[in-house]
Amino acid sequence: MVEKTFPGQKISGRVFADLVKERGGSLSHSYFSNILAGKVTQPSEEILRALGLGFGVDWRFFKEESEVVDDVVAGLQFLAKRRTGEISGIAARGLDDDGLPPELLQFALSLLEDAKAGQSGGGGNSDAKADPKPDSEPDPERDSEP
User: Fold this and answer.
1) How many percent of the chain have pLDDT more than 70?
2) Are 33 and 13 in contact (CB under 8 A)?
3) CA spacing 20 to 30 A to 45: which of 31, 112, 117, 128?
4) Cα dist. 86→67, 111, 113, 122 in Å?
5) pLDDT greater than 70 at residue 127
6) Please, are residues 60 and 71 in contact by the beta-carbon 8 Å criterion?
7) Per-residue pLDDT tens digits for 8-41
8) pLDDT digits (tens, 9 = 90+) for 62-88
9) Could you give the CA distance from residue 73 to residue 69 in angstroms, rounded to a whole number?
């Protein structure tokens, strides 16, 4: 990654740490050197964010693929439910540039599923579609003859 990001340059731990600092992050040169040497194999998200700043990529680039997939799936599920109107009126307080954390997305989705289960009677068939109109109101499509 170092060679592809900084082609033809010799990047020391100090140079990289200074670059991260210039971009608003914090990373010690010795810690970066330990990462390159393979002595650090499970850096914290804070360190991953610093690496992202230094390499000019989103910090999630350095996460395990399965973690990123889970984040993406949760985000897409949330967006789909937002688009269909199942989720509305979200007040985004205290968000950072990364948006809602995946854990919060999963929690919101689980609350939505719990609410749906409660409305359908808990043990009923949640896939069955209820007639959206009350009985007193005729449905032209259903009541018309072919």
Assistant:
1) 64
2) yes
3) 112
4) 25, 11, 10, 18
5) no
6) yes
7) 888 888 999 999 999 999 999 999 999 988 999 8
8) 877 766 667 767 777 777 777 787 776
9) 6
| Per-position DSSP letters for 30-74, written without gaps between them | HHHHHHHTTS--S--HHHHHHHHHHHTS-GGGGS-HHHHHHHHHH
Q: In angstroms, rounded to a whole number, what is the distance separating the alpha carbons of residues 39 and 21?
A: 22
Nearest to 82 by CA among 100, 103, 66, 70: 100
Distance between CA atoms of residues 34 and 10, nearest Å: 17
Give CA–CA dist 14/77, Å, rounded.
42
- Report which of residues 137 and 43 the model is more confident about: 43
CB neighbourhood size of 51 (10 A): 21
Give the phi and the psi of residue 99 in degrees, each rounded to 5. Answer: 80, -155
DSSP letter for 25, please.
Answer: -
